[in-house]
Amino acid sequence: MKSLSILALTLVWGVLPACTGNLSPRTARRQIAELGDAALPTDDIQIQRIVTELGNRAIAEAHVRTTFQFERNADGEWTIVAVRLGDRDWIDVDRLLAAIEAQDADDTAAALEGLAVGIDAFRARNGSLPEVSPARPVSDVLHPLFMNDLIRDDAWGGRIRYTADGDGYELRAPGPDGAAGTGDDVVLRRPASSP
């Protein structure tokens, strides 16, 4: 197996609220170095910029020295099989990507549930389900009275679809392939008897 050091990998990292003031490059570098007990040398992290959002959240764009492990496949092409940050163990790329996909599916299911809570509150107050159009998705109808966040897309960037039939409804996220009606869709269906 062959390893390759990449000098710059751009990461966008959200940092939890700090005690006071704006997030400093030094604090961002230190927290990234300690990410998951990776023990990255701070010299391997270059903070490019920090953007503060609403005073209690910041995004740090950084270049992080990362090591990749390659193997030649049956066709003779080199493919990435593992990645390592700092002195951590090698992480199998397929397992890493599967974990990310599972987290995206969980985040999307939670987003659909958030929409369902808003739809159910709308139905309880108005006696009917929300009416939507392509120009006005269900989240726009519900926000801000019935839900705090605008939830329009799934974790992969696909538009969440809402359909109502009678008193029941379905929320459908197209999932990783971006195409609705395929096996990887994330679906929440509430029948007419749901609150």
Question: What distinguishing features does this structure have?
Answer:
195 residues; alpha+beta; Glycoprotein, Type 4 Pilin; three-stranded antiparallel beta sheet; 31% strand; disordered N terminus
Summarize it:
The chain is of the alpha+beta class and 195 residues long.
Structure write-up:
- This protein is of the alpha+beta class and 195 residues long.
- It has 2 domains: 2-89; 97-190, Glycoprotein, Type 4 Pilin (2-Layer Sandwich).
- The chain contains 3 helices and 10 strands; from the N terminus they run ββαβββββααβββ.
- The protein has helices at residues 25-33, 93-126, 138-142; strands spanning 2-6, 10-15, 45-53, 57-64, 66-72, 78-84, 91-92, 161-165, 168-173, 186-190.
- Strands 1-5-6-7 form a 4-stranded antiparallel β-sheet. It has a 3-stranded antiparallel β-sheet with strand order 2-4-3. A 3-stranded antiparallel β-sheet has the order 8-9-10, covered by helices on one side.
- Strand 8 and strand 9 form a beta hairpin.
- The termini are far apart.
- The relative contact order is 0.11.
- The model is unreliable at 1-19 (pLDDT under 50).
Which helices and strands occur, and which strands form pairs?
Elements: E1 2-6, E2 10-15, H1 25-33, E3 45-53, E4 57-64, E5 66-72, E6 78-84, E7 91-92, H2 93-126, H3 138-142, E8 161-165, E9 168-173, E10 186-190
Antiparallel strand pairs: 1-5, 2-4, 3-4, 5-6, 6-7, 8-9, 9-10
